Amino acid sequence: MNAIKETNFNFENQTAFYRGKVRDVYTIADTYLAMVASDRISAFDVVLPRPIPYKGQVLNQIAAKFLKATADIIPNWVVSVPDPSVTIGQMCEPFKVEMVIRGYLSGHAWREYAAGKREVCGESLPEGLKENDKLPEPIITPTTKAAVGHDEDISRTDILKKGIVSEEDYVQLEKYTKALFQRGTEIAAQRGLILVDTKYEFGKKDGKIVLIDEIHTPDSSRYFYADGYQERQEKGEAQKQLSKEFVRKWLIDNGFQGKDGQVVPEMTDEIIASISERYIELYEHIVGEKFVYPDQENVLERVERNVAKALKELNY
């Protein structure tokens, strides 16, 4: 299939290039970022060997819609979305923490809880909770941003003590995080979904805090189906969910959690197709619209052409 595994463009006035786990980021005139959402997929901080067709488009388009839907809460970095798989935005100075917020005990927080911990990132958790239970109220469990390797849990206290973020800025980040999560929760509810947990990244532009990167996508968030949630909890059944967790579960079931000596299981064509289908299903549920497949031209040529055109129109 026509998937974007990597790009190697050279745009006019390009001043830097960075290849992340799943994005290729082009810096233009030290002013703009052209962020290509590749079809690479990562889990347990490992980039898996085969790309997932349409995954980048799904993430990029969901993020664009949610950034637009939250622009009244906080300004964001986006200038334009010139291609299904690309966002162009203002270059910002990122904060070195990711603001993770959790409304339910799932994923990493549940794994910590199941191991006996009753505190995550300085936030206390009550006894007697089951996996996927709703928390008494949402908690913020930040992580440090790692350029390479694993992000690490960190508490509010340690962030301030180490001077990673000033107290004034951190208080504002907490307010934005809670407001964005509330908005995301409301939009999800309209689609018959529960926004379980998510993460936000922030930066500064001209001294003001702005929202950067993607939001409310299946890579940065976890969603449950609202219908039947309570019944499944009462029966102790697994929740039906829309997130990348199904990829992690497949890896765990096949003996891989990113630990030394472990080998990624074979990603067959059937596995690739099933993951792609799940991402498209997620898009249609979250956005409430049918997924539009792009023309089957050379995807790299299309992306390069659309980005070059959009950059020319910026007149920087």
What does this entry look like structurally?
The structure is a single chain. The model has no long low-confidence stretch (mean pLDDT 93). The chain has eight helices and 18 strands. It is globular. By secondary structure, the chain is an alpha+beta fold. The protein has helices spanning 55-69, 107-114, 156-161, 167-190, 229-235, 245-253, 269-287, 299-314, and strands at residues 14-19, 23-28, 32-37, 42-43, 46-47, 78-83, 86-90, 93-94, 97-104, 119-120, 123-124, 134-140, 143-144, 152-153, 193-205, 208-212, 221-225, 241-243. It is 33% helix and 27% strand. It is an enzyme of class 6 (ligase). Belongs to the SAICAR synthetase family. It comes from Sphingobacterium ginsenosidimutans. Pathway: Purine metabolism; IMP biosynthesis via de novo pathway; 5-amino-1-(5-phospho-D-ribosyl)imidazole-4-carboxamide from 5-amino-1-(5-phospho-D-ribosyl)imidazole-4-carboxylate: step 1/2.
